[in-house]
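Revision sheet: structure tokens.
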Amino acid sequence: MSILVDKNTRVITQGITGKAGLFHSQKCREYAAEVRPGDDVIVGGVTPGKGGTDVDGFPVFDSVADAVKETGANASLIFVPPPFAADAIISAADEGIELIVAITEGIPVMDMLKVQDCIKGSGARLIGPNCPGVITPGIAKLGIMPGYIHKPGSIGLISKSGTLTYEATWQLGNVGLGQSTAVGIGGDPIIGTSYIELLEMFENDPGTEAMLIIGEIGGNAEILAAEYIDAHVTKPVAAFIAGQTAPPGKRMGHAGAIISGGAGTAEEKIAALEKAGVSVARSPADMGAAVQKAMGVAAS
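Predicted:
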């Protein structure tokens, strides 16, 4: 099994006529065609003012409401430019889209506060923004990750970093492990779905045997995740924290990755995770081995 994505997921892309929106929609369609030939997974897109047109075989609609009515879409990929992305997310939630994956980077913090308020209680699940997306290998990919490195398996992967998601996926494959679902939650200060929410989903997913979480310096999300794991998670968990050598006050690539007032260091996050029984990789080269260690599997 998996979380978030299944064979009933039907995806539209908001911003499909933009360069990035079209390119990655094509790649998601190619992945779906390879793993589920004949199934409609990527069903169209939305660009206001271009409704009724077609772009590389994707029908384009003026609004999410029109797209949902015509295609039955229940998931959306957001490739809308930052100034308009918040409204795009909110419109998807308003039209009953269940899973919203926001790839857009640079959405203003104040806009994300508005998004948080608007989607609360809507029934929509927001992943991101500023994330690589979600993939359930063999079912569908909603995002920008290279599909071919992901193999079906039993590891639930949660990451703030796109690049480290790909590295971890490659390492898991090299030790004979695949993913039930891999989720990039994004590295912004305000994101839709947290480690804790996804840990709970993976804990309850019978297709997930163990989990790997990839965090980074800044904020306290990994500390809260460690506390949740200690209290509620029974499956093996491994982790890696990026930014172990970053000097205090130095911002990394993500907006949320900054140590302020001595809080949010890699050391305190590693200590909290290890206290919760998590197998923590000290090097990004050891993420696959850390999962094996957590599962009690001899390293290969």
